[in-house]
Amino acid sequence: MPERCFLALSLSRPVVASLERAQAAFIAAAPGWAGEKWVSGGLLHVTLEFLGPMDEQGTDTLVRHMEAVAAGTPGFDIRLKGVEAVPSTRHASMLWASLRDPAGTVTGLRERLLAATARPCEPARLFRPHITLVRARRPRPVPPDALNATQRIVSEAGKGTDGIMSVRSVTLFSSTLTAAGPEYRMIAIGMLAR
Q: Model's pTM, two decimal places?
């Protein structure tokens, strides 16, 4: 049976801990958001591309391409930047942690991976590296106090070591939707060059 797959960057423990503090601060300032779909620390990641259902043969081919692209890409560092309500603070369907990627290394890695797989994908101009913190069940306003509290935590982490992500690999995951939320299974890791 085909698996729903996606390419992603995993997060370091300090980055996850910073984001969990930010999530807790948001809920403390906006308790009405507690029932939304918060992403648990173990599932936080940077999605490079959602690939959709893939059979075993397609997955095997993708893994070979991913490993080759990763091996030819030097490792790099990115930092947490801030928090955004998407698409707007008045009608937010998600909260993102944004990333500082001034050299476009995340976007470049994504483009090389997708070129190697020759799969249709979201246009590069629409891609913005981020970490989804929560998905609202329906679009709703974001309280400014909650957003400000969360923003302070994430931007402060981004100025220190707790907000640095050393990217040394790319991972292919499968995703299964359950009543309790998504479950991710790691299929393969492509190690970046040292």
A: 0.93
User: Cα separation of 188 and 66, whole Å?
Assistant: 9
Residue 52, φ and ψ in degrees, nearest 5: 80, -165
What confidence tens digit (pLDDT) does each residue in 77-87 have? 999 999 999 99
Extract the tokens encoding 2: 């085909």
- We report the CATH number of the domain holding residue 171 as 3.90.1140.10
Contact 170, 9 (CB under 8 A): yes
Q: Which residues are 135's β-sheet partners?
A: 37, 94
Three-class secondary structure of residue 43 per DSSP:
helix
Number of domains in the chain: 1
Show the domain range for 124.
3-191
Residue 107 backbone dihedrals phi, psi, to 5 degrees: -60, -40
Q: At what angle do helices 144-159 and 13-29 cross, to 10 degrees?
A: 160
For every residue of 87-136, DSSP letters joined together read: S-SSSEEEEEEEEE-TT-HHHHHHHHHHHHHT-----GGG---EEEEEEE
Which pLDDT belongs to residue 91? Answer: 96
12-100-21-43 Cα dihedral, nearest 10 degrees: -50
Per-residue pLDDT tens digits for 117-151: 876 666 666 789 999 999 999 999 999 999 999 99
| Pure H helices in the chain | 13-29, 56-71, 105-117, 144-159
